[in-house]
Amino acid sequence: MAYPIRKEIMLKSASKIEDKGNQWPRNEKGRAVYSSELFGENVFSFKQMARSLPKSTFSNFLKQRRGKSKLDQITADAIAHAARVWAMDRGATHFTHWFQPQTGTTAEKHDAFLVMVNTYMQGGDESFALDALSGSQLLQSEPDASSFPTGGMRSTFEARGYTIWDTSSPMFIQEGPNGTMVLYIPSVFISYNGEALDEKTILLRSTEVISKATKEFLEILEPHHRVGQVTSTIGLEQEFFLVDRGMYTLRNDLKITGRTLVGKLPPRHQQLEDHYFGKIPARVLKTLSDVEMDALKLGIPLKTRHNEASPAQFEIAPVFEEASLAVDHNLLTMDLLHKAAYRNGLKVLYHSKPFKGVNGSGKHVNWSLSTDRGENLLDPTVRPENNYRFLLMLMAVLKGIYDYASLLRVAIATSGSEHRLGAAEAPPAITSIFLGDQLSEVLNALEERRPLKNFSVPQFQSIRVGGTLVDLKVTPLPTIPRDLADRNRTSPVAFTGDKLEFRALGANQSPSFFVAAINAAVSAALKEITADLKAALGSKPKLTAEDKLSVIRKYINITRPIRFEGDSYSSSWVETAASRGLFNAPDCPSSYLSLKTHKIKTLLTYTLRIFTPSELESRFHILNERYTNDLLIESNTLYSIVSQQILPAICSYRSKLSSSALALMSISADFFTEKLIIDRISPTLRKLVEANDRLAAHISEVEAEHKSGTAESAAEKARRLLYFDLLEVRSHCDLLESMTPDVDWPMPSYAEILLTF
């Protein structure tokens, strides 16, 4: 019986004595090593390369990274040798090209440094072993391309693909088996014909596009202010659940799909709002500390850790980094969390909505643009009303998101997001931007050609646009500066001081495609604004303030529909958004159709060349196939759970009640209670059997469509049938759980999973 097993697991978890595990290192004098001293010790950084390579070789490498030359074989061989020696000195025995296929995770194939040298062909008389890594092996490897998602670009028999070293991201080492290490070489993944089969290639193309578009914009706006490079920078807040691994092993739905397909809420979950920022449970704190130590050694600048709103939910966040490196580090951090959780008897869950009725998990993308001079182009400074560069950049962001909201919608669309978006903790699928009262007043005043208003708010606070203070009139409390914008937790996109926070990405998604979509949208808008500035410049030596203001006013007016300062959860917002003409795709298959529109295809393949036509078509098919597969896996899992666990358990419980009633009847005792419970259970049990049979029939329909139809038609049918079947079957299961004793319920409850800390 399941209950005694669950009880035993819970008792073991409650009495678990933490092992010492990773201990914070100390130096030879016994002093604890500072975090900054650990930072990057397992990274073959550019500083380490400079130490290991001849000056001319390192100089050639830097020229290649800046696009001023190709990486020649001699330079590649020298770097490969230096990297191997550095890695092997630290215990590495293997190397791997580490890449990001379109699966949402990373992939790797390990090869040993060991090679056999045979001298017979050269007239010798022996063979011997050497350790080696050649420049050719560093530059590329050959995984099987047919076994990864290709969206029809590659047939099964066309297996060859290539991973190519991404020189913008440093190599690093990670722990392997038996105390050894593995050298990781960050890479992109392409087909035999050169098509991108991964997430990273697209992201890298988009970073070059937005750098070029921004530089052209700045050259017109500030011709005296030369910028060599502009990079998109991001900070990725990662939310997740940590649950006891023993409880996890007893839930087939969690193991197979990453989310619970059945389960009723306990009487107490997050409604007291006492978990958010609360004391971190000891076993969780140990896990997060382990992650932070490993992350520091890998050069991942984790900054924040805290409890999230739901029980058993947590968040970690790093400081800002260049976009491609930040994505690498985010995916690495997710992997480190898996390993640390396992060592501490926990399981990490990244699904967007692992538990119904409590907060889901997102991956907030804090996005900005920075120059190689260290300037943040979205910094409003003290007086944003006079900062025309900032205002024009803000207009580019607003215009890009307004024009290409459908592309951003595609980038967040997964089967899991359909359960999270629009819930109490997540933004709706309709994209809008929150700027806050102060910035909104700046834009309104500029458009209306009037002075700025001075606001006043209740009692002890006063607001002045262009830098404000909060004075609480309590002597021991210092006066603090107020940000230019509040934080609207209902908005999909919010300006938060000097960056845009995008809150709709799912916790288990790779950020690469989403960041590429942002870069593409803003690049397109920057091109439009640059063209308008050129037209305003004409033959004049430089732009006047009025030239800039006229362009700013134009885009303030154009982008007014995308700005929304209210509650994005309200039902009236859907109607308001529709009246403004804002894009709204209610489900994943309908959102994916945006990739087929002329507007998106032209932008991504012709105007910006971030995708080739075949790569974009492939992306469309992969997204639809993944959606269909997700729903089929969930449906088959739920059908088996109901058939093999829940129905037998309920029937067994009903049988016990019947036996008890017969025994009572045989001695002329009252058996009203037993009969009442049976009468309550039986109708729901019958509905569950009917709904489960309907689910099985629809599974067959979708599988047939998936096999013989198009990816698009299969995804549409899966959404129309399976999505709602899953909800119906679950509703009957959850009602039966509320009527069944714990001892007879065949799997751990929400209370057992979420409230074990």
TrEMBL record:
One of its GO terms (biological process) is glutamine biosynthetic process. PROSITE patterns: GLNA_ATP, GS_BETA_GRASP, GS_CATALYTIC. InterPro entries: Gln-synt_C (IPR040577), Gln_synt_N (IPR008147), Gln_synth/guanido_kin_cat_dom (IPR014746), Gln_synth_cat_dom (IPR008146), Gln_synth_gly_rich_site (IPR027303), GS_Type-3 (IPR052725), GSIII_N (IPR022147). This is Type-3 glutamine synthetase. Pfam families: Gln-synt_C, Gln-synt_C-ter, GSIII_N. Residues 93-194 form the GS beta-grasp domain. Coiled coil: none annotated. Residues 199-646 form the GS catalytic domain. It comes from the Eukaryota. Belongs to the glutamine synthetase family. GO terms for molecular function: glutamine synthetase activity.
